Amino acid sequence: MFAARGTADFLYYYLEAGRTMRTYQPPPDKSITLRALLLGAIARGRTVIQNPLFCADTAAALACLRALGVELRVSKRSIAVQGRGLNGLTRPRRALNAGEAAAVARLLAGVLAGQSFPSEITGAASLRRRPMARVAAPLALMGADIKTRSGKLPLKFRPAALKGIVYPLPVASAQVKSAVLLAGLYAAGRTVVKERAPSRDHTERLLAHFGARLSRRGRAITLTPGPLAGARLSVPGDISAAAPFIAAALLSGRALLVKNAGLNPSRLGLLKALRKMGAAFRLTPRRGGPEPSGDLLVRPGRLKGAVITATEVPAMIDELPLLAVLAAAAEGRTVIRGAGELRHKESDRIKATLALLKVLGAPARYRGGTLEITGPAPFRGGTAAAFGDHRIAMAAAAAGVRTAAPLKINGRRCVKKSYPAFFADLKKVFPC
């Protein structure tokens, strides 16, 4: 799908693009940072995470781990975790607060289900509205004593003996898959998770990096319980954080070189969709570490409408609002099937995306899980609402590089959840 090119190709295109070329280094990957912290906490020995992401979600994860007795040493460029082993966590004095981080709540649920002490997970109001039954159900099948409040937070756990199960995922969810695999570390017998469609595999890669006995055959992942060992790793740049910059480059007609981004195949769904729409990319892979990474060159070009299938959506679930904005700039109709999961994010992202498209002047509709956008839109500008959702705020900001009039974003501070410096970085790369 993406051709890799060497330094000469990048130099050639840099000279060809001239001064319109932009260079951008994304912040560290949040998904990898959070998983490395959690695995380091339940591994034996010391784990050092170089280049972690520091944001509100990371702060929530650190607070939860400290409450569980984990010793953490945080510096500007690294986090050292003194692992306590699978059974070395201690009972927290109060409910663990995951803030707005669904990944922290759901992955931590997999660990707490197998502990010898009672515990509880809660979170901010926005997180307490999000579904947790999808995690609680498979954990209960494994024998966990877990209770929810009408399928949502708080999650309450009591000690229970877990057993391995074979679990076909009803939805493509990396977080549910991860929770089951983490609980499998504490279970008697093997745990097998079967995916209908591929989802992010950061947990599987990191489990293997920490020494877990893990194997994959087709879409079935098998985990044999056993201890983890502390490890060292460096977190690559977050391709999801880079996505608004990629969108801005395509919308503004400028070339962009993204440095040291994570290139995990399960996270490249947006690039594949944009390639289908006529965008051009070049990748230069780097070696080393459990996660693939490298440089990405974005070449501007004319976009055209395309059909995105439901099986393609899980690999770009966080980037769908951005894809919708780019579809508004494309010629013709874009159809995105299987978009219903967007209703269960930090906001109802279907509602929020349609509201943003309306501000841009793009005809769009949603029906039966399918989102349709017709372009090219005039990109009028005006006022857009972030709906308290960092992905919507970033999608609106990317659209703002193209609008005929300034685009004001109400509630833009919500980006601190994952990318506190987003607007400052966007202004540096794409100054007005």
Overall description:
- Mean pLDDT is 93; it is low at 4-8.
- A 4-stranded mixed β-sheet has the order 1-14-16-15, covered by helices on one side.
- 33% of the residues lie in helices and 24% in strands.
- The relative contact order is 0.12.
- Helix 2 (30-42) runs parallel beside helix 3 (56-67).
- The chain has helices at 7-17, 30-42, 56-67, 102-112, 125-128, 133-141, 174-184, 202-209, 239-252, 269-276, 320-329, 349-360, 390-399, 422-429; strands at 22-24, 44-50, 71-74, 78-84, 96-97, 119-122, 145-149, 152-158, 166-168, 191-194, 213-217, 220-224, 232-234, 256-262, 280-286, 293-299, 307-308, 332-336, 364-367, 370-375, 382-385, 407-410.
- It has 432 residues and is an alpha/beta fold.
List key phrases describing it:
24% strand, four-stranded mixed beta sheet, alpha/beta, 432 residues, UDP-n-acetylglucosamine1-carboxyvinyl-transferase, Chain, single chain, 14 helices, 2 domains
Sequence-ordered SSE layout with sheet pairings:
Elements: H1 7-17, E1 22-24, H2 30-42, E2 44-50, H3 56-67, E3 71-74, E4 78-84, E5 96-97, H4 102-112, E6 119-122, H5 125-128, H6 133-141, E7 145-149, E8 152-158, E9 166-168, H7 174-184, E10 191-194, H8 202-209, E11 213-217, E12 220-224, E13 232-234, H9 239-252, E14 256-262, H10 269-276, E15 280-286, E16 293-299, E17 307-308, H11 320-329, E18 332-336, H12 349-360, E19 364-367, E20 370-375, E21 382-385, H13 390-399, E22 407-410, H14 422-429
Parallel strand pairs: 1-14, 2-13, 5-6, 9-10, 17-18, 21-22
Antiparallel strand pairs: 2-4, 3-4, 6-8, 7-8, 10-12, 11-12, 14-16, 15-16, 18-20, 19-20
Helix pairs in contact: 2-3, 2-4, 2-8, 4-7, 6-7, 9-11, 9-13, 11-12, 11-13
